[in-house]
Design brief:
single chain; alpha/beta; Chitobiase, domain 2; TIM Barrel; seven-stranded mixed beta sheet; 14 helices; membrane; Beta_hexosaminidase_sua/sub
Amino acid sequence: MSQHRRRTPQHKVGQRALLVGVLVAGLGVGLGLWASGDDGDSGPTGSAGRQPSGSASSRAAEESRSAAEPTPSPTKSYALSSTPRTIPAVRSHTPARGPGWRPVRGQRVVVGDADLADEARLLARELGLSYAGEKDDVLAGDVRLSLNDDEGADPESYSLTVRGGRVNISGAADAGVFYGTRTLKQTVHAGGTAPEGVVRDEPAKPVRGFMLDIARKHFTAGWIEDRVRELGDLKFNQLGLHFSDDQAFRIQSDSHPEVVSDPHLTKAEVRRIVALAAERHITVVPEIDSPGHLGAVIAAHPDLQLRNTSGTATRGAIDISKDESHQIVDDLLNEFAEVFPGGQWHLGGDEYQALTVSDPEASFPQLAAAARQEFGAGATVEDLATGWVNDRAATMRVHDKTVRAWNDGFFRDTSVTADKDIQVAYWTGKEIGARLPVEYLSAGRQVINYNDEFLYYVLGQPQTFVYPTGQRIFEQWTPRVLRGTEAVPAKYDGQILGGSFAVWCDLANSQTQDQVAAGIRMPLRATVEKLWNPGTPQGSWAEFRALADRLG
């Protein structure tokens, strides 16, 4: 996420009332205490007395009766609770004794901060509860969402406390609170009960993404919205949209309507997708790939096609020696920066076909001349291509975007180097002059894992691609496995921001939308499990699969 809402720290005024009840069971007498502070985490973990009533006067009367004339009441004994089973698994759970919590129509979702109204309304709608807004009173069955004062905490962290027939979800920012609501939603799915105790949870990796190629294959807005809901419930936080390629340009453009293909998404549809994603704390990461993969743009502007000395066109490649090429791509970048207000942008940069020939300078003398003019006598076409990516990064920085580019858009032994703040989207080791992931990491670069060995779902399985399975990801992949099946040294783990599962539509008609959704269902769940939790998953693949089937 580019930004998270936090509450300004405030001094706590005091704790709520302490209820004392004398519990009689068999031949012994036990004293049971229940206490609840503003954060919902104080007091014993068990709960056995009557629930507090809703008004201040009734609570005072209750306290008076309890202090003056304790009235024994029967109670049940409970085994220690079990850890809730969710995807991804929660990081820690402190068990307690008590009945847990399950939603009952008429119960409330309340907030301690108005900034959490969206999260509360969504949860209330999903669980059939009533959203009651900001409330200080306490009713039986309440779910309370609140922001805590821990300014140093991960904004995606949260705690979920089930105690005394109520639930409190708190976090340092609204994103963490939202993830707590996803955990609660999963635990009560299909009549389940949220177990007594305290969940403390946070992700291992800040980037948990899914990328969709909507350029080669048109996906309807409704289908994409369904994926957004699925991703949100699984605690993904990025949705990549690759919407421009050789085959098509799939979003309405006002600056260059001539490049747009049919069918395509309208801007109104895109804005609805972006808004839905924002509600679920998902940043949409657009990609207009350049200087390669621009066939749809070039089709409308054939004068910008890159051609070699014999006049042969280079597929998908724009002639980056021409000022008009820079202008049209920047026009599109500037236009869509406003359509996608999130703080992330993918520049592409991969597979520029001018660099796949044996002697780019001889084949494309116009590129060689432009390189020398801009960067000096010894400059190469690789330098010119690197300068192109740097220029596009500068365009997007004006819009406060953090940018990334595919690893084969970075080159070794060049006089021009890619800007240090451009993140490496590492997907392959098959490019010409392939560079090992450690080369980027040892240079201090941040890397996002798109490993095509595990995370590429390529329609039709062309070349050497095979459809990835959730089991293989679950059992063999980790964020440190950036290329092939080998993990990079653990010392680089902090530079690996996370990963992204990707759907590419090379043979677009090989599967329908519904088949794609079914095919990626378990790979998505396995991917986020490995991005949220470090280390080896507890339990087997069969158990994980059964849990996924139970949760729906």
